[in-house]
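Following the same procedure, sequence and fold were stored together, as reproduced here:

>
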Amino acid sequence: MPDFEKKDQSPTVATRQAEPKPRWGLRIGLGIAAVALLAIVYLIVRLFLPVWWATNIGNQTQGSLSSGIILGLVYGFVFTFVPLLIIWQARYKKVSWPWKSVIVIVAILLAIPNLLTLSIYANSSSAAAKARSMIDISATYFPSWSIGGAAAALVLFVGIAAFWHLWHSRGKKLKAMKSDMKTQAALRDAESSAPTAESGRDGSRPVAWSPTENAEHPKSAN
């Protein structure tokens, strides 16, 4: 084999040898760890959190019906309205995608109290059934008023969003009208300042001929 062929092939062989081999063992281990972590989180959410949340609500209401109503209304309204306001900020074009994901995560974290209440009544496990019985005894009206507070927060948010949209569109129309008026005024000023076709080159208008001038000065007419 000629020397130039060996020189051409030697860098390719060196780069192939320098490339790191994929660590499949590490990847498989990380995948198994991620699945195990998700399973642990699922078991905690399904078995532990419903009873813990029901116990926490019962300790706050102390079996009082009025406390259950007020607490449910406050929890449902605040932890629905505030997350909606936060997640609404992701609509701006100036916000980059990483920050939009952060905004969504923060909104979900703030909605956890309502999500915990929802998980109790949307879950069919024995822990959820125990949590439901605990809430029915210690905070009877908490779930229903929590739903009412969340519905009121949603209605208020939709009203604010609709009002903001109308106000924003009205502002855009006013700006467009003002810009059109300025453009028309500039065109009128330009037309009034420009010399007409009958004007002289220096911008002065020619003097119109009158027959009385020739009658008074016949010599000038000749």
About this structure: The CA atoms of residues 70 and 161 lie 26 Å apart. The chain has a mean pLDDT of 80. Residues 28-176 form one domain.
